[in-house]
Structures are given as structure tokens and as C-alpha cells.
């Protein structure tokens, strides 16, 4: 903790720091995505595809209108990074699936996030473990996915 006071940080100070870190990480992600010809939203969609995801589910994950997702998926599909396939339980529903090239592209984007990697290099293994455990405890209360 920086400063000369031994007072624990306030919730407002913690929230400000988390927001600043999140913003810096997002900027790093967007810059790495741009180097691969992707917008930050296209890369974010691609990062969500660990398995088949319905179009409507992507709209929820990206907090945008379903019509916006169609255009994003169209552009990713044209580049061979995703494909649409019918849902086996309801053929009216279209799932979006990352192709091997899509998985490789998002892997490279994450690997090229130099500012984020450099920042984490400032922590030793024990500190990274502690940070991970603390953030993982916060995650359930911060994720509001329907």
C-alpha cells in the first residue's frame, strides 16, 4: 500500500483502482485486437466462444442488441473466425462457434497484451496467487449474466 497512513483503503479507493486496472487492461486488449484487424467488440465476442453460444446469449454477454451481434458475427464469419450452426435441441436457434483459426487468433491477442503482462510481471508467484484468489472471490458478486 502506498502513502504514509496505515489506514486500510476505502471501498471507493478500491473501486477506483479496480476501474483503472480494468480500463488499462481493456485498452491493452483493444490494441492487441487491432493488430489482428479486429475491433475490441469483435475480439470480446471471439473471447466468449469457449463452446457454442446462441446469438441471443452473445447479445447478453456483450450487453448489446441482438441485431448488433448479427453484424459482428457476419464480419467474423467472413474472415473464417466463427461459424453459425443450428442448435441440436432447437434448429431455429443459431449457435456461434469459434473456428480453429478464431481460437488461435484470440489466443494470440491475449498473448500480445504486453502492458498487462508487464504489469503482472511486477508480482512474484505468491502475490499473483493471492491476487487471483482475491479476485476470484469477488467474481460471483460482480458477474450479472442472465
Could you characterize what this model shows?
The chain is mainly alpha-helical and 146 residues long. It has seven helices and three strands, in the order H-H-E-H-H-E-E-H-H-H. Strands 1-3-2 form a three-stranded antiparallel beta sheet. A hairpin with a 2-residue loop joins strand 2 and strand 3. Helix 2 packs across helix 4 and helix 3 crosses helix 4. The two termini are 36 Å apart. The mean pLDDT is 91.
The number of helical elements comes to 7
**Apparent shape:** globular
Report the biggest beta sheet as strand number plus sense, adding barrel if it closes: 3 strands, antiparallel
Quote the distance from N terminus to C terminus: 36 Å
Mean pLDDT: 91
Task: Provide the succession of SSEs.
Answer: HHEHHEEHHH
Radius of gyration from the CA trace?
18 Å
Structural class: mainly alpha
Number of strands: 3
- The parts where pLDDT drops under 50 for at least 5 residues are none
Helical amount among residues, as a percent range?
55-70%
Strand content: 5-15%
How would you write the strand order of the largest sheet?
1-3-2
Amino acid at each position: 500500500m502506498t502513502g504514509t497512513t496505515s489506514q486500510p483503503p476505502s471501498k471507493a479507493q478500491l473501486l477506483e483502482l479496480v476501474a483503472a486496472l480494468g480500463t488499462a487492461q481493456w485498452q491493452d486488449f483493444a490494441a492487441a485486437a487491432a493488430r489482428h484487424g479486429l475491433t475490441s467488440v469483435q475480439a470480446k465476442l471471439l473471447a466468449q466462444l469457449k463452446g457454442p453460444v446462441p446469438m441471443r446469449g452473445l447479445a447478453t454477454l456483450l450487453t448489446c442488441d441482438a441485431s448488433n451481434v448479427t453484424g459482428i458475427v457476419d464480419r467474423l464469419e467472413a474472415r473464417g473466425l466463427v461459424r453459425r450452426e443450428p442448435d441440436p435441441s432447437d434448429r431455429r436457434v443459431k449457435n456461434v462457434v469459434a473456428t480453429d483459426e478464431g481460437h488461435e487468433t484470440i489466443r494470440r491477442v491475449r498473448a500480445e497484451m504486453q502492458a498487462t503482462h508487464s504489469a503482472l510481471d511486477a508480482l512474484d508467484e505468491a502475490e499473483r496467487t493471492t491476487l487471483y484468489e482475491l479476485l476470484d472471490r469477488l467474481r460471483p458478486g460482480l458477474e450479472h449474466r442472465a
